[in-house]
Amino acid sequence: MSSNNKKWFSLNLGGRNKESSGSCGCGKTSGGCGSGSKPNTIDSDGYQMTDDEFAEAAINASIGEERKKDGFEQVFDVKMDRRTAFKKLTASLLIGAGAVSTSCSVIGSDEGKEKAQIDWEEQFKGNYKMMSDEEKKATVERLTRSYELRTGKNITMSSKNAEEDVLFGYAFNISKCQGYMDCVNACVEENNQDRDSEMQYIRIHEMKDGQGFNFNEADDNYYHEVPAEGHFYMGTQCFHCDNPPCVEVCPVQATWREDDGLVVVDYDWCVGCRYCMAACPYDGRRFNWSKPEVPEKEVNHNQHYLGNRMRKKGVMEKCTFCVQRSRSGKNPACVEACPTGARIFGNLLDPKSTIRWVLENKKVFRLKEDLGTEPKFWYFMD
Amino acid sequence: MIRKNYIYILACTCVLVLFSCKHGEGEYHGVIEKINAEGKNYHGTSISSEQYIEGIKTIEITEDGHTFLIPERKGQIRSYACTECHSKPLEDMQSKGIKEAHWDIKIVHANENAMNCVTCHNPNNMDQLKSLTGKDIDFNKSYNLCNQCHSKQFEDWKGGAHGKRIGGWAPPRASMTCVNCHNPHKPHFESRWPSRFNTQTELERK
Predict the structure, then answer these.
(1) Is A339 in Cβ contact with B168 (below 8 Å)?
(2) What's B53's DSSP letter?
(3) Which residue among B43, B48, B193 places its CB closest to the CB of A329?
(4) What is the number of CB-based contacts under 8 A between chain A and chain B?
(5) pLDDT digits (tens, 9 = 90+) for B143-183
């Protein structure tokens, strides 16, 4: 165990010493992150809990307290049943044992050691939401290096934070959409979605004229020449609600709303309970039932930690308004791909932006507005 | 003393009532309220889309208070300037023996009563477009030709509800002009097959 103010354990096998600060970079998103409190330091014997300690921790722990904890304690110092506890301990032990055996082995390669070191640090890293900028950078560096070690290919991964004075919003013109589904293709390619299960964030619903928004009668998997006579088309995806119910229900706070309005998921913190999937009234979230597979040559190498980096089995994912693109000034892939200009994206706080003009001058509405979820995704007609 | 307590309690209740609305998700009742409040002191951001339009030649236009960039057009027309071929009056060019041109252009735009070639093109000055009243319109600002009839679309386009952005969402705004998406001789979008069919969803729903 190396430095005292680290939020997770590290074996420090290679003798590298990484500085980390205790400040929090989560901004003013809901709930508060306890950034004011000092980060909990962990004693070197911290993870060999006695039964009493464990029981006490289990009784005392609650969601409220969990907010103040980080790193190691977020994993272990929470209410959990024995099965989960054993599962976590076993996983950690396996990784630890692997790390020790590789690092102590004389014949083990340097690469192996580095891999083990990365795996170890990744296993015990904290929630991204609570990380300081340095910690975010460190985990992104580890992930890029790990990808390089595994595949021999380089990726660029960003940990760019939300910009001030930016709130992303989206408008969809239902009289323009022709149902071509170019947006869906662009989205899948941009966001490295699983090709085996043909996961797609966007659904285009073909609706009969004169029946209103009847999702029961609508078809979101049509295959015939479009636009079909007597039908109109509307797209749904994650609406990035300003009052997102999916965030409320997450038991581990692996999903949250960023300051620029994006609702994001920390794939490494998600436990895959799918509460958020059930809570979303718009079917905006997707679950990886199997390990997502993307052919190496189709992988989009321009990634963001909260966006299109490779996911693993058993975690949630969803549209992030292409955080890797939008935070650097580009339009999301679906907006760029749409041949009819039905999709409009921009900064809601900029009074001169096109999205604001749409909201102020067109007759806009949102889906299920009465739920109070405050989606930042408006529909309008010509 | 008791009266003082009452006043104290009353004051506390007032304060509580005042702040009780400001629950959980912060200071606003809805996202519109939030946009209006936080957008009031908007100072701009450091994010720019300029780098994504560097490779495109654009011209700046100001219409009705909206200033933005549109792609330059003349350089994109294959055989501009038109007068390089149209050196003689149109009647002479149509005579036999001269190589035929523009045979591939069929007008599928309005009907024959409303439009033909010379509604927009000036036979006496091929390098400019022609308004309905016979005024010259520059090829770079061809939207002025379209908006003679399509005034509603023009309004939406200026504001940003019609058409497509180039580059990204951030300033400076660059937008496609009419002819970047619509073929002026055949402006409708063709029907076609969707670019995707989800076989997994099909299986799941069987």
Answers:
(1) no
(2) G
(3) B48
(4) 161
(5) 999 999 999 999 999 999 999 999 999 999 999 999 999 99
The yes-or-no verdict on residue A39 having pLDDT over 90 is: no
Task: Kindly list the residues from chain B whose CB atom is less than 8 angstroms away from the CB atom of residue A347.
Answer: 45, 169-170
Interface pTM, i.e. ipTM: 0.86
- For chain A, how many structural domains are there in total? 2
**Domain span holding position A306:** 160-382
CATH of the domain at A250: 3.30.70.20
Residue A94's pLDDT is: 75
Instruction: Judge: A226–B191 Cβ closer than 8 Å, yes or no.
Output: yes
- pLDDT digits over B74-91, tens only? 999 888 899 888 888 888
- Asked if residue A219 and residue A172 are part of one domain, the reply reads yes
Test mutation, B28, B32, B35, B166, chain A, max A CBs within 10 A: B35
Asked whether the predicted pLDDT for residue B92 surpasses 90, the reply is no
Which residues of chain A lie closer than 8 angstroms to B196, CB-CB? Answer: 181, 184-185, 200
| Residue among B44, B153, B160 minimizing CB distance to A354 | B160
Report the residue from A180, A221, A351 with minimal CB separation from B195. Answer: A180
Question: Does A324 lie in the same domain as A190?
Answer: yes
Task: Look at residues A91, A125, A154 and tell me which one is the last residue of a structural domain.
Answer: A154
At A104, is the pLDDT very low, low, confident or very high (cuts 50, 70, 90)? low
| Under 8 Å between Cβ of A202 and A321 | no
| Nearest neighbour of A357 by CB, restricted to B32, B160, B195 | B160
Mean pLDDT, residues A235-263: 96
Contact at CB, B26 and A30, closer than 8 angstroms: yes
- Our CA-based measurement puts residue A61 at a distance from the nearest CA of chain B, in whole angstroms, of 22
Q: What is the mean pLDDT of residues A336-365?
A: 96
Average pLDDT rounded to a whole number, residues A121-130: 93
